[in-house]
Design brief:
323 residues, alpha/beta, Pyruvate Kinase, Chain: A, domain 1, five-stranded mixed sheet, 11% strand
């Protein structure tokens, strides 16, 4: 059995660890709230662009674009993979790297020289270097500080290479943020773009809370449904009477690249929010485990202390009887 001093030292050590995990949890919660605000600010633009594209596609059944050209033979593939720059976020990075490896294995017949990885985050960049794959650039800063201009630049680069037949297919691997307690690992095609499929994607998000427990999520979901039912009575339909100049094809060729920029930026915001949510949950779990360990150590300390006192009392009583 460990001595009282050893137990006391371990209690102090666990207490120090608990303070760190608790502080990291609060920092992650604050960053998650900021990431949720970024997504919320982006949603009106996304919804309006989606509405315009849906209206145009409904009126132009045979709309064609250079970005939706299906290649019968795929010779070269690019993967845009989103992870984080730091650890301590549970299985967030491990799950992304595992799915990336599965996608790479699916294109193994092309050879490593025909698979290009665009790593968003240091963890992906390190894995790409370890596997000896070709990297599309350094995007480490983008993982911590999402910005639109760099996403536009990347989307233009990928779009140009696709149009010039330098790349036949572009795919994305990231976490879709649904709520603080739910992040869905997502693998989808970026190019060639299927607008109709893209417009049907899951838009459900909970941007109102940073609480990750199942009970609170269920309560917030039901409350959100009641608010939606109440608001639907006063909803006004959007104006669909668009005047298109010079023609539908030209306008679509302008809007579809904007959709590509938005896809990259949305995935980046999703990944960023998912990282902070995963870290918050991981640190909360670590704090709870530390609390449980402290309870056990305090109980063990009190038992050992009581046993030492009892032994001393028995020695004193035994000595008095002998005298």
């Amino acid at each position: 059995m460990p001595s009282l001093k050893e137990i006391k030292n371990r209690i102090a050590s666990v207490n120090s660890t608990r303070k760190i995990t608790s502080a990291m949890k609060m920092v992650a919660s604050s960053k998650l709230h900021h990431a949720q605000q970024l997504i919320e600010n982006m949603l009106p633009y996304e919804e309006m662009l989606e509405h315009i594209l849906k209206t145009f596609l409904a009126s132009e059944a045979h709309a064609q674009s250079k970005y939706d050209e299906e290649r019968p033979v795929v010779r070269r593939v690019a993967l845009v993979v989103y992870a984080s720059n730091s650890s301590l976020c549970g299985g967030f990075n491990a799950n992304i790297l595992k799915m990336m490896q599965q996608v790479i294995d699916g294109y193994q017949h092309l050879g490593k020289e025909n698979i290009v990885i665009y790593p968003i985050g240091r963890k992906v960049a390190e894995k790409v270097a370890k596997l000896g794959l070709q990297s599309g650039g350094d995007f480490t800063a983008l993982a911590d500080k999402p910005n639109v201009p760099q996403c536009i630049s990347l989307a233009k680069e990928l779009g140009k290479k696709f149009v010039d037949h330098e790349i036949d297919r572009v795919e994305m691997v990231y976490h879709h943020f649904k709520s603080a307690g739910s992040q869905i690992l997502t693998h989808k095609t970026f190019l060639p773009i299927d607008i109709t499929e893209e417009l049907k994607r899951d838009h459900e998000r909970d941007l109102t809370s940073t609480v990750a427990t199942l009970q609170s999520q269920e309560y917030l979901r039901k409350r959100g449904e009641r608010k939606t039912e109440h608001k639907e009575e006063n909803v006004k339909p959007l104006n669909d009477n668009f005047i298109v100049e010079p023609d539908m094809e030209t306008v679509l060729n302008q809007l579809i690249p904007k959709m590509l920029h938005l896809m990259l930026y949305t995935a980046l915001l999703d990944s960023n929010a998912s990282e902070h949510a995963a870290r918050m949950v991981a640190m909360q779990t670590a704090t709870d485990n530390a609390d449980e360990l402290l309870r056990e150590l305090n109980l063990q300390y009190n038992k050992s202390r009581q046993q030492a006192i009892t032994s001393e009392l028995l020695d004193i009583v035994g000595g008095s009887v002998n005298n």
